[in-house]
């Protein structure tokens, strides 16, 4: 299924009058307070987030998985799904592949399909947290950190192959997330595990093409429950520094212990020019991978405040790789991704409205109340007309979820692909 421009134009006509009055009112009041509305809309339109190939089917838990039907069964179909989300939102212009789940059969055909949908290939992800069929060594006791040289070599070789595959598609970054760790005290020697991991990462890093970046993800626990080798941003940063200039930390919002000040981590990493990529999701308890903005939208806004500040002030930090890393059991995965994209745009738009100059003045005057007022004034602004306007100007849907439903997208996918579908993913 492909959504035609004309279909969206027809649907948009219905809500246009309402939108125009909301947008005009907001644009006028923002302009009066000094906001350059067109520049904000331009930034929103430029902001593209990669969709992970593993989020297009219903995720599961260890207790089970409930299919949503019509799920993509191949890489082609995954790209088609992202194409659908992108035509509705104009924000999902990239895909993040996971190897070996998404190895293309025909590289030219996949590249052509992605180009047709205006989708780029963002960071590629390696997988050393599962054993694959016919694999010689097992990752049961770790991969890049394993005490066995043969296991480490196999895991290094896999990462190198992932880079090769990504390179053929036009990707420019490798994301490494390791499940390595231990579940019981005494199981691992922490120092040995970290040293092996550093050396393995160096070997992968040194083999990457010169214009590639390495993103090192961290996570405090799960699947191991006593220790994780790359448990936090400090460990990730240390490993990135040990690799070189093109190795960076990747922040996944769900990979923190409760109440961690993620915005401060973002800020410090950008100051040091070491924030490489971002995985958006939301959580209540752990790595819940819930829809972005569904639980803690204010925290997301505070994170975006630091991201915006960093993008404006930290030229030492490279452009970031923006990705969603969410998936779950009960919602239509495509609707869920549309909601996530909307929440990201909302937090970004609100952060762009913060009067940075006034905030600096209030900070220097130690006017704590004013500082809070400035942030919350931006946060309390309903920015949705700006996001809708950005979509409208680029041929997207005024109301993506409504359009998705009006066009019967899921019904059509089920008709095309059938009821009993299982997408590859986490
Ligand atoms: C596991 O926690 C995880 O969700 C990581 O966040 C990775 O980014 C993702 O899986 C894909 O490997
Ligand atoms: Mn992640
Ligand atoms: Mn995760």
UniProtKB/TrEMBL annotation:
It comes from the Bacteria. The keyword Metal-binding applies. Keywords: Isomerase, Manganese, Metal-binding. Gene3D superfamilies: Divalent-metal-dependent TIM barrel enzymes. GO terms for molecular function: isomerase activity. This is Sugar isomerase. It comes from Leeuwenhoekiella parthenopeia.
